[in-house]
Amino acid sequence: MLTAIKGLHHVTSLAADARQNNDFFTKVLGLRRIKKTVNFDEPSVYHLYYGDEAGTPGTVMTYFPFPHIARGRPGTGEVGTTVFSVPKGALGFWKERLAAAGVAGLSEETVFGENRLYFSGPDSDSFALAEVDGDPRVPWTHGGVDPDVEIRGFHSVSLRLRSAGATAELLQYMGYRLFETKDNVTRFFVPEGNGASVIDVEALPDVTHTREGAGSVHHVAFAVENRAAQLEVRKALIDTGYYVTPVIDRDYFWAIYFRTPGGVLFEISTNEPGFDRDEDTAHLGQSLRIPAQHAHLRSRIEEMLPPID
């Protein structure tokens, strides 16, 4: 069993409109835009990152906004709901704030003893806020939301699978422990994790496979401290029979990828070097950062990308 994985690092999704996406996460949810860069494989498209002040692993939501992309179809083989942590007693504030902003899909539920508020993103993305008592993480305090109720970072993601067994075994090999099963949902957690330490696995044997598009999660990334730990994880996964990509430099972290038995794309990302490698913390996300291999295209890229605040 692996011990290097400490919870989520980031979640990356697809969107249709960069400005709408930016406004939702910075103005409605009050997160900080910590990086404005471009997709490594398609530099005509933004890669936008949102999180806490420094972009701490376990707080970072990222998006590829592809103009005119079709709406995704929810199903199995994907991340179903991305859940953020908020303090105890905060859901009343958030319900009122989200309703005032015209956010759709508001509903409340208690899951494994935690109060939740579900809501939809601009592309019908599935989100929830979970009340967590004593989450010590420090939120971004300049997003127009009272610090007493602000988002602390991720709480969890849910995996929607036709069959949960093989992925459940994988999660336990990755260091997650079984917490409890209720109905068709099994919860796993990382002991002494980074706060974004929970994975819920939903078994949905009669649901058809997802069709990826706007509102879909592209991949979910798990955090390891450094490159040495990442190489240990990579070797262990390969030895277990998984095809794992070589290490890829993503500027702000190093990444490896592999496909789970249920079809979800997993990434293992390093906490190093961090989002301040090319911008100081006070100015994160303000200027357009271009990966080195696309630097010669800067003027063309700037012409193609829609301006965002």
Automatic annotation (TrEMBL):
<dbReference type="InterPro" id="IPR037523">
    <property type="entry name" value="VOC_core"/>
</dbReference>
<feature type="domain" description="VOC">
    <location>
        <begin position="7"/>
        <end position="132"/>
    </location>
</feature>
<feature type="domain" description="Cyclic nucleotide-binding">
    <location>
        <begin position="77"/>
        <end position="124"/>
    </location>
</feature>
<dbReference type="InterPro" id="IPR004360">
    <property type="entry name" value="Glyas_Fos-R_dOase_dom"/>
</dbReference>
<feature type="domain" description="VOC">
    <location>
        <begin position="153"/>
        <end position="271"/>
    </location>
</feature>
<dbReference type="InterPro" id="IPR052537">
    <property type="entry name" value="Extradiol_RC_dioxygenase"/>
</dbReference>
<dbReference type="InterPro" id="IPR029068">
    <property type="entry name" value="Glyas_Bleomycin-R_OHBP_Dase"/>
</dbReference>
<protein>
    <submittedName>
        <fullName>Glyoxalase family protein</fullName>
    </submittedName>
</protein>
<dbReference type="Pfam" id="PF00903">
    <property type="entry name" value="Glyoxalase"/>
</dbReference>
<dbReference type="InterPro" id="IPR000595">
    <property type="entry name" value="cNMP-bd_dom"/>
</dbReference>
